[in-house]
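anyone seen this seq b4? input:
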Amino acid sequence: MFMPLWLERAWVGRWLRGVGSRSADPNDFTTESAERLLAEFRASPRPLERPVVVVSGWHALNVLPANIIANLSPLFRAEPARSGFLPHAFPTQTDFDAIARRMVERVRGRWPNEQPDRTVEVDAIAVSMGGLVCRYAASPRLMRSHPRLNLRRLFTIGTPHRGAWLADRIAVDRAARDMKPGSRFLSALDDELPRAEYELVCYARLYDEFVGATRSAPAGREPIWLSGPRVLSHLTIAQDRRILADIAARLRGEPEPPLARFIDRGPPPRD
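predicted toks r here
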């Protein structure tokens, strides 16, 4: 992604302020621990409880959700007709309403049901902007007369629930403007959240150069935050084996997801 000089300087300044600082991440669930757990899951696959929609981020290609599915699908037995994974990307679309409607259409096409106002019950794994798309699609009020996404669980990875750091500095299209902190769009999503019937699990990494770890959960909630690389933390967050292992454990119904004990440890110490 091309950055104008002024934005590049601002981003470099954020990076330099983090260099040499303590991670402040007490998490002892390492990448190596995650790899061992994923190997255990591959050795004893389980069936999916319900279909899973995997949603990409802003202008991201379908390769992003496809990669997540490639990592997770071996952990589950051959699914019956009414389960499985569905990737959804929207690389050229910038209107949340159109993106949400198209996603719902694809879910209904893959898993038809007799309820005209909603899809079959699904779980969703959403990267960055994709988490906002899912929150929008699950709201009967925002979807108005169109069918909604019938969400049971939503796992968001680096999603700008409180707005994106980058969008606050450069908003090149409608979607980016909607992701500015304090936007009417984000306010509408927050107004709907108390009525949401789905479980929301948010993940973040420190040094998130696009969104910011402190913005990766709705107001009044905090994400499960992890250490991250000081460069490209946001762009590589969906490849974090610790996050994938925790999501896999929850999809499998494991009694103790590895990151569950870090949910209530307070806000991220920095973006």
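The first strand starts at residue 52 and ends at 55. The chain has one domain: 35-262. kinda curious what u guys think
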